[in-house]
Amino acid sequence: xxxxxxxxxxxxxxxxxxxxxxxxxxxxxxxxxxxxxxxxxxxxxxxxxxxxxxxxx
Length: 57
Prior knowledge:
Layout: E1 18-21, E2 24-32, E3 35-40, E4 46-50, H1 51-54
Antiparallel strand pairs: 1-2, 2-3, 3-4
C-alpha cells in the first residue's frame, strides 16, 4: 500500500491497519490533518473520520 501522507505525521504508522469502527471492520488508507480516510471492508465505502473517534479506546 502506497502512503500518500507526509511521513512526519504523528499517526502515519496506523495507515494500513484494520480497525473496528461503528461495529464493522474498516481499513485506514490515509491520514492527514485531524482525519483518517477509512474504507469499510464489507463494501468498499470510504469516508473521513476524525482521529480522536478511532483512537479513543
